[in-house]
Design brief:
CAP10, globular, 2 domains, two-stranded parallel ribbon, alpha/beta, O-Glucosyltr/Glycosyltrsf_90, Downstream target of AGL15 2
Length: about 180
């Protein structure tokens, strides 16, 4: 079953006796794999002896690939356990936190400690009640229909919804796990 997840997995992460081991299968999207692995290492460091032995497969792109309609009835036993950062109601990928908030240099997200200090400094510059009421979002609108709709709320020549929507440019190829044989 785990081998079926390898078809699109970026890496395998094994926790054995409180130690983490990684086997890479293909290059990750930018440095997303590093921050996912870092998150698991932090979990092991902060909770020694409390994390059970695990054998996990991760895919580091957003788009879910385990199509639920392919894993019904007798095929349900063939379900590949694949972790990723996004899911929807038509797929069975296991959603896992995207820990890139600890830093993602390719899209200019500073490491969390530096970002936290910037946020504190910004909070001290303008009192809460004196702030302009803007919503801010930065991400990949191609991940879901909801995100594509969100982009429509951005400022235009005819409307200003007090939202500032920034689409990050990404390049990807679409991979899907084939149906069980």
């Amino acid at each position: 079953m785990l081998d079926r997840a390898r078809l699109t997995a970026t890496f395998r992460l094994v926790v054995l006796g409180g130690n983490a081991y990684v086997q890479r299968f293909r290059p990750a999207f930018q440095t997303r794999d590093l921050f996912t692995i870092w998150g698991v290492l932090q979990l092991l460091r902060r909770h020694p002896g409390r994390v059970p032995d695990l054998d996990l497969m991760f895919d580091t792109v957003d788009w879910p690939v385990v199509r639920s309609h392919l894993y019904r009835g007798k095929n349900a036993e063939m379900l590949p356990p694949l972790f990723r950062y996004c899911g929807d109601d038509k797929t069975l990928d296991i959603v896992f936190p995207d820990w890139s908030f600890w830093g993602w240099p390719e899209i200019n997200i500073k490491p969390w400690d530096a970002l936290k200090e910037d946020l504190k400094a910004g909070n001290n510059r303008v009192r809460w009640m004196d702030r302009e009421p803007y919503a801010y979002w930065k991400g990949n609108p191609s991940v879901s229909g909801t995100r594509k709709e969100l982009v429509k709320c951005n400022v235009s020549s005819t409307h200003d919804w007090n939202a500032r929507i920034y689409a990050q440019v990404t390049y990807f190829c679409s991979l899907f796990i084939p149906s069980p044989q």
